[in-house]
User: Which sequence fits this backbone?
């Protein structure tokens, strides 16, 4: 679970932490990936192709959301992103012919489950870890490339980038597409792990949970985002276990968990906005680029 | 090289520019002066595509560029700086230079994934070039500092170095010496002359008459959105209309010494 959320948090960090695109619709990209790969796998399409199809559809959705960023200020565009995500979710919630509406999809088969049997969890862990590693390395390379430099440049100086000949809209759209691809991958992995998805699975609070992971860990720093994902997921699961020891009613514990995540977010935004691991300076040297103090 | 013809631009009821025409000849440094609010920066914004003109044409080497977005105009070899320099504070001086490179393979994410060695090789060349330019403006020592920690004067120097990094041959500099002390102003003036000697064409917005008369070959004077005078710096400086626009009618009759 930590790995899956880390993948999505990394994709969000690419859009928000680096590029400064306040995307509040990340759960929708997960949803697109999850539904596409679940439905295609159940229709007999090989797992890998289903996941890829989810990524492609998600990137198209990302491009559509990126379009209004052309002439909207960042904060208004953030509203567009959450509205678009909710529209898509409510559409799935209110249809029946495509994906069973609010009942969701049950019994999503796990790929290769007959092959691994009892050690399946271990296999899936390895699969998620491998995906996470690939995503981490790919996004980090992009971050340190000339492409990533332009993204970081337009986070704070959009006009300057435009004046220096960068097609700002194109860069933003591509950043959205890359983030959408990765979030869809995370969504697919989620669907085949939990084996049940419904529109409620991808409600806006999931987006906010992912935002919390990024803010607590350190927006702009991929390692920090990994730490943040680990912390928040641990907090989420440990409080679930804690109720068995504290003899508190389940509903109260659930409320306290949500509360503690909210308090944590506010605390970090006020006291340490740069997160646990702040974004590091990119010292450029011949051949390689590495983080400095 | 640059032909601006009959530009009109209004913001609501305010006519910011009316019937502005001017020419920047290849190989010259052309000045643009005028009191605050006379429309100099607005004109820059229209020429470089940040604003759309209501009427009029802008031609670069005979091609109409009036309707192009800023990045396409920069791509055609005309690059501007900003009066209040835009600085991505979290990036180092070197990164600010590298980001000004043009048509880089590494700006394509697919190339970054698939052709990493080529991207790295090009980046290395860019780093070397950036170091030469930083050395030239005296910022090589600040190479790895965050731009957020630079002084106002250093930011101005970085902005000039950035425009050089783009390889553009026409530079529009918006007050390259604003808020800069006398010694650094001299340094920047020498730098501008130096760049000019290498064949770059420039248009600069300036307030300091000393800079104008020192580096510019030709000057346009803007007041209330209109060109009220143009000519060689010395002639323009003594034009009664210009003195009046800057200092008011009373002063026009008296002092002729002003900066």
Assistant:
């Amino acid at each position: 679970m930590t790995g899956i959320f880390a993948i999505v948090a990394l994709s969000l960090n690419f859009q928000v932490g680096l590029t400064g695109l306040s995307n509040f619709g990340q759960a929708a990209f997960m949803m697109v990936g999850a539904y596409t790969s679940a439905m295609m796998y159940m229709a007999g399409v090989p797992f890998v192709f289903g996941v890829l199809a989810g990524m492609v559809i998600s990137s198209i959705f990302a491009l559509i959301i990126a379009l209004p960023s052309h002439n909207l200020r960042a904060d208004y565009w953030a509203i567009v992103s959450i509205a678009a995500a909710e529209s898509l979710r409510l559409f799935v919630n209110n249809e029946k012919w495509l994906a069973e509406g609010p009942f969701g999809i049950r019994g999503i088969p796990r790929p290769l489950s007959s092959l691994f049997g009892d050690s399946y969890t271990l296999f899936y862990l390895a699969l998620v870890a491998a995906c996470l590693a690939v995503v981490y390395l790919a996004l980090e390379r992009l971050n340190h490339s000339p492409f990533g430099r332009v993204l970081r440049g337009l986070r704070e100086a959009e006009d300057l980038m435009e004046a220096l000949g960068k097609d700002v809209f194109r860069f933003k759209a591509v950043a959205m597409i890359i983030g959408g691809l990765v979030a869809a991958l995370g969504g697919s992995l989620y669907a085949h792990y939990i084996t049940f998805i419904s529109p409620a699975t991808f409600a806006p609070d999931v987006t906010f949970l992912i935002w919390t992971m990024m803010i607590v860990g350190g927006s702009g720093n991929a390692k920090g985002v990994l730490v943040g994902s680990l912390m928040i997921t641990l907090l989420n699961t440990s409080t679930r276990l804690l109720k068995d020891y504290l003899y508190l009613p389940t509903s109260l514990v659930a409320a306290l968990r949500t509360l503690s995540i909210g308090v944590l977010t506010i605390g970090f935004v006020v006291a340490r906005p740069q997160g646990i691991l702040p974004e590091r300076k990119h010292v450029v040297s011949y051949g390689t680029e590495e983080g400095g103090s | 090289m640059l032909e601006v013809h009959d530009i009109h631009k209004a913001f609501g009821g305010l006519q910011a520019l009316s019937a502005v025409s001017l020419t920047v000849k290849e190989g010259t440094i052309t000045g643009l002066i005028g009191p605050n609010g006379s429309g100099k920066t607005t004109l820059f914004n229209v020429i470089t595509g940040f604003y759309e003109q209501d009427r009029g044409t802008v031609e670069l080497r005979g091609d109409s560029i009036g309707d192009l977005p800023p990045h396409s105009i920069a791509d055609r070899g005309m690059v501007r700086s900003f009066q209040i320099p835009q600085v991505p504070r979290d990036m180092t001086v070197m990164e600010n230079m590298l980001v000004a490179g043009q048509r880089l393979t590494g700006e394509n994410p697919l190339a970054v994934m698939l052709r990493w060695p080529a991207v790295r090789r090009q980046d290395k060349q860019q780093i070397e070039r950036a170091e030469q330019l930083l050395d030239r403006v005296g910022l090589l020592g600040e190479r790895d500092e965050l731009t957020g920690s630079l002084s106002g004067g250093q930011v101005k120097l970085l902005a000039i170095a950035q425009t050089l990094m783009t390889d553009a041959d026409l530079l529009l500099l918006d007050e390259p010496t604003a808020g800069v002390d006398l010694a650094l102003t001299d340094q920047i003036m020498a730098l501008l002359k130096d760049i000019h000697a290498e064949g770059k064409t420039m248009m600069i917005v300036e307030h300091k008459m000393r800079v104008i008369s020192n580096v510019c070959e030709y000057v346009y004077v803007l007041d209330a959105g209109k060109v009220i005078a143009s000519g060689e710096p010395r002639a323009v400086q003594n034009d009664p209309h210009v003195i009046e626009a800057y200092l008011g009618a009373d002063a026009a009759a008296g002092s002729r010494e002003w900066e």
Q: What stands out?
A: Residues 2-202 of chain A form one domain. DSSP finds twelve helices and two strands in chain A. The two ends of chain A are 32 Å apart (CA to CA). The first strand of chain A starts at residue 282 and ends at 284.
